[in-house]
Amino acid sequence: MAHSGEVFELRFENVLGNLLRAGVSMAAAVVLIGGVVYLFRHGAEPFAYKVFRGEPTDLRNIAGIINSARSLNGRGIIQLGLLMLIATPVARVVFSVGAFAAEKDWKYVVITLIVLAVLIYSILSGGA
Amino acid sequence: MGSLTGLGGGVVIVPMLTLLLNVNIRYAVGASLVSVIATSSGAAAAYVKEGFTNIRIAMFLEMATTFGALGGALLAARVPAPAIAVVFGIVLLHSAFVSMRKPADQPWEGPPDKWSAILRLDSAYPNRNGSVPYRVVNIPAGFSLMFVAGILSGLLGIGSGAVKVLAMDRAMRVPFKVSTTTSNFMIGVTAAASAGVYLNRGYIDPGLAMPVMLGVLTGSVTGARILAGAKTKALRITFAVVILALGAEMIYSGLSGRL
Fold first, then answer.
1. pTM (2 decimals)?
2. Would you call A110 helix, strand, or coil by DSSP?
């Protein structure tokens, strides 16, 4: 039992590591593409972040970001990449729920589901 | 910019953006949060395969950090920017102090902990001669400190490494290698919990987050290579001095209303 548990955890850790690396690489690639598009169109505009204005609503939620990225808006594509980046740890938690369930470790399935609920609440509603 | 931040992660990004580039602190925290997710997930990918990361400790404590991070992010919307700067400065001073001290790495020799047994937190880490078993203790204290670390992370956009060291190394007696890799593993999920709120509130600006995230990512890759051959003691002292100066400057700017 202890031995099979160890083998299981080793495999679990490998998949987890690959998942994290893939998520970050993909997100970085999308952000880079968006950045090129953005700089190509707006690179000459002055830099103004002293005053806080907040982002327009279409760059604040998942549907708006996807729409904006589909119309090949540079800022929209960057935001899509950032969204993928934020989704990477969420995907890690989703994967962990499955892994703990496969190991029949129900205590940790519950713990992981609680963490997942907080993440989903934050991303979908922003606590509003 | 990136190679410096590779040393300490988020704690350098916000002061540099606000103090040197005059970026509003809310945008700076938003950009810092996404960079923190990028670097910690990238590093975690490597660490987790080495087998030092304790995934059960991480999952259990993430309940505390994600709730804290959600609270901290909601708090960030209500707290005025100068106050955030002052809290940030205090955290920087504390981090400088913690980074100067040597890690206390004494394994727990006493009886097993009740909570640790229930949650199966005790584990072992690999070394040259096989594996070294360890026990963890003071779970409620560690859990509470992690909640505080989560709040600070959500409010300031940092990984809260210094508070996590307090919780895991000092309170719970997690071995050094395990605590650093496990705390790094947790940062991504913790930061994601507050990044959701920041995104929904429009605090994450793509034009700012893009160069910061890409810069920090490349910096952390090259920084790790340079670090491998550098003298760690000199680096630690330099880093502590930089953090100390940034912390003092953040407090001064916050109090004088410059931010």
1. 0.85
2. helix
